[in-house]
Amino acid sequence: MSTEILTGENALQVDQAGLDSYLNHVLKRRSIRKLTAGPVSDETIRAIAEAGRWSASSGNSQPARIVILKERNTDFWNFVEQTLSTKLQGEQLERAIARLAGYRSGVFTIVVYEDTTISHNPPAGFNPELWKNFAAQALGIFQANLWNAISAAGLGASNQHINFQIEEELRSFLHVPETWQSYCILPVGFPAETPAEGSRHPHEKVVFYENGPAE
Ligand SMILES: Cc1cc2nc3c(=O)[nH]c(=O)nc-3n(C[C@H](O)[C@H](O)[C@H](O)COP(=O)(O)O)c2cc1C
């Protein structure tokens, strides 16, 4: 895969249309927790995965791994339900199961992992805690790139963390090595709900030009 990067005088022009289009996808990306099925090609899914694979990482160490379930999507969510049923009870279980319905009815699911053979092995002389922090940042960027690509494709997703309740069972269901630690689960499909209007802190609370807010 290659994209042209302009250099020299040809580069001295902001691609405003490209920026507007990108921002539109970022603004469109919302947590969509109720999904519906529809036609999504393997090529589309691969392109979404490529948006993750090409993410930046510290020293290009690339600590993220993903497992994508399409053929096994329904089986996967049935497995999650069965496993949760052995761990939760009563109302907690009912609420968890009710939420799963919206994920199961989507098209595919991405499970995001950290490969600790990378994140727990800093280069010589590198502070190990800082290296782990950098890996976490890289995983965040990877997830953001996946989620924005999903939005650009007109699909919806959310960022779920049921994985932490079922780590070992998930490991064997997905056949992943013990050295991988789960991060999150992204159920993906066509949106079957309109999210509430988005809200964020005002620009002035978050973004400071030239100087921060301290006296
Ligand atoms: C690190 C992280 C963890 C999150 N965990 C969950 C989660 O476990 N379940 C969930 O439904 N949403 C989860 N979310 C989604 C947030 O609640 C959501 O992004 C936020 O409220 C803003 O809403 P929006 O995504 O619609 O813009 C998580 C988001 C992030 C970045």
From TrEMBL:
<dbReference type="InterPro" id="IPR029479">
    <property type="entry name" value="Nitroreductase"/>
</dbReference>
<protein>
    <submittedName>
        <fullName>Nitroreductase</fullName>
    </submittedName>
</protein>
<feature type="domain" description="Nitroreductase">
    <location>
        <begin position="27"/>
        <end position="189"/>
    </location>
</feature>
<dbReference type="GO" id="GO:0034599">
    <property type="term" value="P:cellular response to oxidative stress"/>
</dbReference>
<dbReference type="InterPro" id="IPR033877">
    <property type="entry name" value="Frm2/Hbn1"/>
</dbReference>
<dbReference type="InterPro" id="IPR000415">
    <property type="entry name" value="Nitroreductase-like"/>
</dbReference>
<dbReference type="GO" id="GO:0016491">
    <property type="term" value="F:oxidoreductase activity"/>
</dbReference>
<dbReference type="Pfam" id="PF00881">
    <property type="entry name" value="Nitroreductase"/>
</dbReference>
